[in-house]
C-alpha cells in the first residue's frame, strides 16, 4: 500500500505544470538627483538583483560636468515584476532603517526610474 501511494505521488507530481516564472532581461535606467547635498564625492546604488548587491556600490556617473544628476544603467535577468534598491552618497545609505525603494519593471524591456536622494516618491 505504501509503495502504491508513493508511486501515485511521484506520477502525480510529474503531471503538475511547472511553477517557475520565465526570466527575462530587464533594464532600468536610474537617474538620481543629489541637488542640495554637500560635498558629493561618490554616488552609488545597491540592490537585490544581480549585478547589484547589498554589500557593494555600483557607481552612478554624473550626466555632465558639475551635474547634480547621476545615472546608471542596470540590466538583470529576472522573473520578478519588481526589484528593490537603495542609493548611497559617499558610502552612506539613504532611508536608514527604513524600507527599500521598490521599482516596478515596465511592460517593455527598459524602465527609467527618477529619484531624489533620501526623498520618497
TrEMBL record:
> Which keywords does this Swiss-Prot/TrEMBL entry list?
Signal
Tell me the superkingdom of the source: Bacteria
Tell me the leader sequence span. 1-22
Q: What is this protein called?
A: Uncharacterized protein
Amino acid at each position: 500500500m505504501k509503495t502504491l501511494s508513493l508511486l501515485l505521488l511521484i506520477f502525480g507530481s510529474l503531471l503538475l505544470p511547472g511553477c517557475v516564472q520565465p526570466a527575462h532581461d530587464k533594464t532600468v535606467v536610474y537617474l538620481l538627483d543629489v541637488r542640495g547635498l554637500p560635498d558629493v564625492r561618490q554616488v552609488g546604488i545597491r540592490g537585490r538583483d544581480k549585478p547589484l548587491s547589498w554589500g557593494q556600490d555600483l557607481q552612478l556617473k554624473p550626466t555632465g560636468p558639475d551635474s547634480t544628476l547621476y545615472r546608471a544603467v542596470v540590466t538583470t535577468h529576472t522573473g520578478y515584476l519588481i526589484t528593490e534598491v537603495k542609493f548611497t552618497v559617499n558610502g552612506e545609505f539613504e532611508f536608514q532603517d527604513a524600507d527599500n525603494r521598490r521599482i516596478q519593471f515596465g511592460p517593455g524591456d527598459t524602465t527609467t526610474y527618477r529619484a531624489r536622494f533620501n526623498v520618497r516618491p
